[in-house]
Amino acid sequence: MENLFAYGTLMCKDIMAEVGGIKLRRLPGIAKGYRRMSVKGEQYPALIADDRNQVKGFVYRDVPAKAWSRLDRFEGEMYARRSVRIELNDGTPIFAGTYLAKPAYLCLLENSEWSYLQFLRSGKKNFEQHYQGFSSLGPFA
Questions:
Q1: What is the H or E stretch that residue 15 is in?
Q2: What are the phi and psi torsion angles at 116 (to 5°)?
Q3: Domain total for the chain?
Q4: Angle between helices 65-75 and 13-20 (to 10 degrees)
Q5: Position 38 in a domain
Q6: Domain boundaries, position 68
Q7: Which residue blocks in 55-133 are alpha helix, DSSP H?
Q8: Residue 52: what pLDDT?
Q9: Residue 49 falls within a domain, yes or no?
Q10: 69 domain-assigned
């Protein structure tokens, strides 16, 4: 089992439950040395390395293997799962898997930060209705 650092749509418990097929407790955490960017024409973000920034998100602990295969399909070709160092709110460092934008897809990123609050206010409903990645997940194992 491994931890997941969610920095975008998977920060929403209901989206995480639908994608991963599980309900897990989440803890707030920060990925230092990364930046969360908007993706052109999309409601979801991408994470890139950037020493001058940090990204707040949530850590889901002990994600089972069956959920990782669904998460990988949900994230798709644009992202590569990598282990990153996360600092929990109490200062405890842990490692978690997260999805970084692959270099070939950096051209799809806007030069602006993605906002979780803005997503909750105006993008989440549209994302849930139109995101094609949900259809690629298949049935729960």
A1: helix 13-20
A2: -65, -40
A3: 1
A4: 110
A5: yes
A6: 2-126
A7: 65-75, 116-118, 124-130
A8: 96
A9: yes
A10: yes
